[in-house]
Amino acid sequence: MTTQSVSAPSNRRILFASLVGTSVEFYDFYIYATAAALVFGQLFFPSSDPGMEMLLSYASLGTAFIARPVGAWVFGHYGDRIGRKSTLVASLMLMGGSTLLIAFLPTYATAGIWAPIMLNILRFGQGFGLGGEWGGAALLAVENAPPGWRGRYGMVPQLGAPVGFIAANSLFLILGAMMTTDQFLAWGWRIPFLLSIVLVGLGLWVRLKITETPAFSAVLEEGPPPAVPLGELLRDHWKVTLGSTFGVIACFAVYYLSTAFALGYATKTLGIDRQVFLSMQIGAILFMGLGICLAGWWSDRIGAGRVLIYGTVAAIITGLLLAPALESGSLVIIFIGLSVALLVMGFVYGPLGAWLPGLFPARVRYTGVSLAFNVAGIVGGGLTPVAAQALSEYGGLLWVGLYLAGASTISLVALLVLRARD
């Protein structure tokens, strides 16, 4: 396939379909993470202890990460049996619908204990839908990639992270400028959840127009798909599944410490104005986009696995530097620290779209990729804000930095073990 065919309308549509889905994914997830850091504690988990409010709010953030492996199993099952396209449409509808319904939830003052229960149910729905979203989007891009372009095609769905982040944070920034704190607390926080329906509608419109991937079509030509993809995966490919899961942990830890935890710590503990810090994060996330693009290009030259190894080494160093940056109190130093952390995030996240699919055969690829990515999300993402909040309160930010360094070291070891399989 030539370079010209990379720019063909069908390929552009496929790449856009993979990008818009992950953009919705990160928009949905980050509006929740931002609301959890700013308002959900006092609205849904009121307590006389502000630290406990934050812990409970961050715990609800983790509910989706528990749901993600379940969604990975269900959507992976159907993605490997009936195809990538139909499964991606279903996952997007579930994820978007759960996000929209959060906008209509009553708070604790109105519904009592039912308010946090309903919030966690919808958060579970978000995670369940997301369990099949990322893996399918990555396969949609990579399984249509021309020879020599797997890294660059695989980076396109990864760009949904900065796109969704910028959309979410920009919206919160605009709302903060247009309304008072009381107005935002009373009803303004609901608007980002309402507007998610626009992105979901765009994603569905694009995805309904795409065709099935060549890799899955080839599986059907060879014979019937696996009856139970998860069973075949765990029987024949359990070592790769386990190793790739550990290999992904670093990207979640870097992201959620640099975004959700940093936002909560900066505004609640350091007293930095919310609008100022949101603006800083929007600027810093551009470095993550740059890192993703560079990592995708580099992956096609030296291999996605090697790029990930270099990225995790940088993440270990970042963990040791992030605490001094946040503790400095200087907006300039904090911005530099966030920018460096998110640039590194690009190098531990950008190559995953090419690396993970390359580890599994097409017969069980949707299940394998989704399961590894989402189980890693529990350890690296779901537990990280809670652990970081607790560590910062009882041991200081140094322990938060060591947590990130430790998580990145786990990924580095796993990547070195799997290096021969890149």
Q: What is the highest CATH level, the class?
A: Mainly Alpha
Unreliable residue runs: 1-5
The count of strands amounts to 0
Instruction: Count up the domains.
Output: 1
Q: Encode the helix/strand succession as letters.
A: HHHHHHHHHHHHHHHHHHHH
Q: Find the CATH topology.
A: Growth Hormone, Chain: A
Mean pLDDT: 87
The CATH homologous superfamily is termed: MFS general substrate transporter like domains
Helix content: over 70%
CATH-defined architecture: Up-down Bundle
Q: How would the global form be characterised?
A: globular
Radius of gyration: 20 Å
Beta-strand content bin: under 5%
Separate helix tally: 20
SSE inventory with pairings:
Blueprint: H1 3-6, H2 9-44, H3 50-81, H4 84-102, H5 108-111, H6 114-142, H7 150-158, H8 160-178, H9 181-186, H10 191-207, H11 214-222, H12 229-236, H13 238-269, H14 274-302, H15 304-327, H16 331-349, H17 352-358, H18 365-382, H19 384-394, H20 397-418
What does this protein look like?
With 422 residues, the protein is mostly helical. The chain has one domain (3-421): MFS general substrate transporter like domains (Growth Hormone, Chain: A, Up-down Bundle). The chain has 20 helices and no strands.
